[in-house]
Amino acid sequence: MDAELEREFDRVVGAEQRIEPRDWMPDGYRKTLIRQIAQHAHSEIIGMQPEANWISRAPSLRRKAILLAKVQDEAGHGLYLYAATETLGADREDLTRKLVEGRQKYSSIFNYPTLNFADVGVIGWLVDGAAIVNQVPLCRTSYGPYARAMIRICKEESFHQRQGYELLMTMMRGTEAQRRMVQDAVDRWWWPSLMMFGPPDAESSNTAQSMAWRIKRHTNDELRQKFVDMTVPQADALGVTLPDPELRWNADRGHHDFGEIDWTEFWQVVGGNGPCSRQRIEHRRAAHDDGAWVREAAAAYAHRQTDREAIA
Ligand SMILES: [Fe+2]
Ligand SMILES: [Fe+2]
Q1: Does residue 1 have a pLDDT over 80?
Q2: Which of 77, 135, 281, 285 is deepest in the core (most CB within 10 A)?
Q3: Could you read off the pLDDT of 79-127 as tens digits, one per residue?
Q4: Residue 308 Cα, ligand 2 centroid: separation in angstroms?
Q5: In angstroms, what is the span from residue 305 Cα to ligand 2's centroid?
Q6: How large is the average pLDDT for residues 9-38?
Q7: How many percent of the chain have pLDDT more than 90?
Q8: Of the ranges 44-58, 146-160, 243-257, 296-310, which one carries the lowest mean pLDDT score?
Q9: Record keywords: Repeat included (predicted)?
Q10: CA of 69 to the centre of ligand 2 (A)
């Protein structure tokens, strides 16, 4: 029986069709997806913090409105993704507990501080830009609810990327001090952005299986290269220097060569020792505790509605 189900699963995946919640799936596939989608959801929610830091200090009403909308989008992304994990049988309360107890990860990029307002622009340009490169292929991932959530998320991410770039363009046309702020932010965020694609292929233990299941469509190094090639001309247009002396066009490869990433730093941050790691988790824990009354009230309300329906 199981062999037959497995053959059907392989056929669906091989034919580029979607696996849906009620379909049979291998245990490992379900576990991998729950882990990946939960990490992704956590990243969206934790990712609200570094930028929210600037909402109250945005330099104009227009910038405040844009930033508010963007941070709110990220909350929505978290919501779609947590809902996608629920279709796999995961429990949201349990995932949140795992996050605040440090048993599940989120993207290490959000453990870096946002020191000036140009960081908001650079996060939009580089961090949301890298997220797009990572996530566009996920619109074709083999699990239906995840793929569908990603289509909507990617549309919003492209707005995030453009608002960041437009903010930086505006600052680059401003004063010398503003240009210095942009360059400083680029210097600090460039390398962590490259780390967003994960460890090099040779050290990425989950890649091969995820590619076979068509959860993942490209390797970490392929996506990283794509991001570099896409970003270099944008940096030129902006008039900033990417902080890598080894970055240059390689005509033979048809790609840009770039310097070695500091993997020691990467593993440090992934291991929970980033500059803001503790602060991010503490904040998330406090926000979750403060929201307990909202969850209780919503549950009580939902309960009463079902009671009423039962009487009617
Ligand atoms: Fe997002
Ligand atoms: Fe975003």
Answers
A1: no
A2: 77
A3: 999 999 999 999 999 999 999 999 999 999 999 999 999 999 999 999 9
A4: 40
A5: 35
A6: 95
A7: 91
A8: 296-310
A9: no
A10: 10
Distance 77 CA to ligand 2 centre (A): 8
> How many angstroms separate the alpha carbon of residue 27 from the centre of ligand 2?
31
3-class SS letters over the chain: CHHHHHHHHHHHHHCCCCECCCCCCCHHHHHHHHHHHHHHHHHHHHCHHHHHCCHHHCCCHHHHHHHHHHHHHHHHHHHHHHHHHHCCCCCHHHHHHHHHCCCCCCCHHHHCCCCCCHHHHHHHHHHHHHHHHHHHHHHHCCEHHHHHHHHHHHHHHHHHHHHHHHHHHHHHCCCHHHHHHHHHHHHHHHHHHHHCCCCCHHHCCCHHHHHHCCCCCCCHHHHHHHHHHHHHHHHHHHCCCCCCCCCEEECCCCEEECCCCCHHHHHHHHHHHCCCHHHHHHHHHHHHHHCHHHHHHHHHHHHHHHHHHHHC
250 alpha carbon to ligand 1 midpoint, in Å? 32
